[in-house]
Amino acid sequence: MLVREGLARAFGLARARRVGVNREEYRDRLGDEELAAASRRVGVWKLTDWETLPEERRVERAREEEERLQALPLERASVNPNTASKFELMRLPGVGEVLAMRIIETREEWTYEAPMDLLRVVGIGKRTAEKISPYLVFGEKKR
């Protein structure tokens, strides 16, 4: 089997299972085979640099997120930080419940007029402000 030899990944293979084995059980078995191959460092796994893998994956996720953000129409995905609910703010990349509440608390004292105004919020730095900027709209609009 290719997965066992480290020559294939276990993604998307649950449809091609043996008769009498349910999809979830087969997917779990393949996942186990993949982990075993990785631990034995066979196939493609012998070429894997385990020290750099976490950073490579982080960079790849950031690139994918950037591409996803660029693909979204700005007006359609707009959020007004002056009027948005906690849940609307939590839709912004990198904004969880705590940060959303901080945005709401800070807007009680300030009016956000530009993305960089969000730097007043504890926990939002320049990179975060730049990352969420395409999603923001200011003024009377609310989505």
Q: In brief, what are we looking at here?
A:
The chain contains five helices and no strands.
Structural notes for this entry:
With 143 residues, this protein is mainly α. The protein folds into 2 domains: 1-48, no CATH class; 50-143, Orthogonal Bundle (DNA polymerase, domain 1). 42% of the residues lie in helices and 0% in strands. It is built from 5 helices and no strands. The protein has helices spanning 23-40, 53-71, 86-90, 97-107, 126-132. It is elongated and about 60 Å long. The N and C termini lie far apart (51 Å). The mean pLDDT is 86.
Output the keywords:
143 residues; DNA polymerase, domain 1
What's the topology here?
Elements: H1 23-40, H2 53-71, H3 86-90, H4 97-107, H5 126-132
Structural class: mainly alpha
SSE string: HHHHH
Query: What's the architecture of the largest domain, going by CATH?
Result: Orthogonal Bundle
Rg over CA atoms: 22 Å
Helix content: 40-55%
CATH topology title of the largest domain: DNA polymerase, domain 1
Strand content: under 5%
Number of DSSP-assigned strands: 0
- The CATH homologous superfamily of the largest domain is termed Photosystem II 12 kDa extrinsic protein
